[in-house]
Amino acid sequence: MIETNIFLFLSIVFLLIFVIGKLIEKIHIPWIFSSLLLGFCLAIYNPFTDITSSSTFDFLAQMGMYLLLFIIGFEIDLKEMKKQGKFIIKTTTLTIFLATFLGTLIICFLFSYNIFISIIVSLSFATVGEEILIPILDEFKLTNEPLGQTIIGVGTLDDIFEIFTLILVILFVGSSAQNVVDVVIILVALSVLFILTIGFLKIGKKGSKFKHTGVESLFVFIVFVLFLFIGVGLYAEAAPLAALFAGIGLKTFIPPERLKFIESEIKTVCYGLFAPLFFLWVGASMNLSYILMFPIFIVLIVIVGFTAKLLGSYLGGRKTLGKKDSLLLGIGISVKFSTGIVVMTILLSSGLIDSGLYSVIIASSIIFTFVIPIVFARLLTKRKSSTGTERTENDDPNSKL
Q1: Is 61 left (phi over 0), alpha (psi -120 to 50) or beta?
Q2: Burial of 392 (0-12, 13-18, 19+ CB in 10 A)
Q3: Are 324 and 382 in contact (CB under 8 A)?
């Protein structure tokens, strides 16, 4: 039967992701989010529940989450983060603080969660999906301008908050162990993870021995390390954190001559196969009935999140970027992506939050993901045309007459 044939199901899914992805790219939305939209459709009506609830599909979705975290860790530049100026640090801290503070108040009083869970959820929602904005910045040639550099800098520094939030979640989930033996196993596994990560960072120069190794062979070695980290992380109930650490450690270990090729291979595997299934799983996990019953909660979360980012960027950047560009910064960094969704998924699967709050946060993220890139691109178009007009008038001697 078709409904029990996972291969036919996956073939239809990837065809729809491809077609829908091509359509949404025309409005400056990354194609990968077509899988999230498709998952949302499955949340409305899902004739394939026997597949989407199976252990096989669950494994594929989990691999997508691990690979996304691995890529985030792989792209984090620890040295570059140290070079970030006070302006970017101030702006990032201010926007994250305001979004977390206001979000915590809403979750505490409207959803009746304790302060710790409310802070974690708010932190996950306060992070920035800068990878969505980078293609738009490239299109408008803003990557090397102050506005573009600030957005990239805030997004890079924001990775620290993402790691901190993820660590909090993993440690809190792991603290549910009931006996001393479980606690000891968790502590030992976490210690092994830190030792492995630091070990790769310390012996980074030894990786030069791999500079003449074929890309395929080196890729096999990377898969070995990734699975090793995840395997150890499972004992600590910290497999997502382990995947992140694997990326951080391997980046310093892989020779620069092979880094770009390997990164391309990993992204192809992740975004070409596993990540779409993860986002499909995320979308399908939404509780649509709750969303329809309480749309005001979604609207409130969107308003609070957007206001916090806009206010934080304006207060932090108006003197350096100017009022208009500081507001553009706030609009841009309102977009959500990656680790925030992963954190919410971990909280849901561990029973720390219910499907109601999960659905509201994911629905809010979808709104930001689809609306912000469109609005941001349109405003940049107006900014470009107005800047061009100003330059033409300044260059035209007759404009002064």
Answers
A1: alpha
A2: exposed
A3: no
CA quadruple 11, 12, 14, 15: dihedral positive or negative?
positive
Token pair of 71 as six digits: 């890529």
Q: How far apart are CA 313 and CA 325, in angstroms?
A: 9
Out of 31-45, 62-76, 146-160, 178-192, which region has the weakest mean confidence (pLDDT)?
178-192
For residues 283 and 43, the answer to whether their CB atoms sit within 8 Å is: yes
**Residue-level pLDDT at 59:** 93
SS3 338: coil
The answer to whether the CB of 156 falls within 8 A of the CB of 84 is yes
Q: 215, 258 in Cβ contact below 8 A?
A: yes
Q: How far apart are CA 180 and CA 178, in angstroms?
A: 7
Q: What are the sequence ranges of the domains in the chain? A: 27-387
Nearest Cα residue to 249 out of 227, 281, 219, 225: 225
Instruction: State the pLDDT at residue 238.
Output: 74
What is the residue-wise DSSP string for 363-386?
HHHHHHHHHHHHHHHHHHHHHHHH
CATH architecture assigned to 27-387: Up-down Bundle (1.20)
Q: Which of 102-106, 129-133, 284-288, 381-385 has the highest mean pLDDT?
A: 102-106
* CA gap 236, 213 in Å, rounded: 33
User: Which token pair is 216?
Assistant: 């395929």
Using alpha carbons only, what angle is made at residue 228 by residues 224 and 234, rounded to the nearest 5 degrees?
145
Task: Give the integer Cα–Cα distance in Å for 237 and 177.
Answer: 10
**Number of residues written out for the chain:** 401
Q: Residue 44: which residues within 8 A CB-CB, separation 6 or more?
A: 288
**Mean pLDDT (whole number) for 2-27:** 87
pTM above 0.90, yes or no: no
Q: Which of 370, 367, 368, 364 is closest to 344 using CA atoms? A: 364
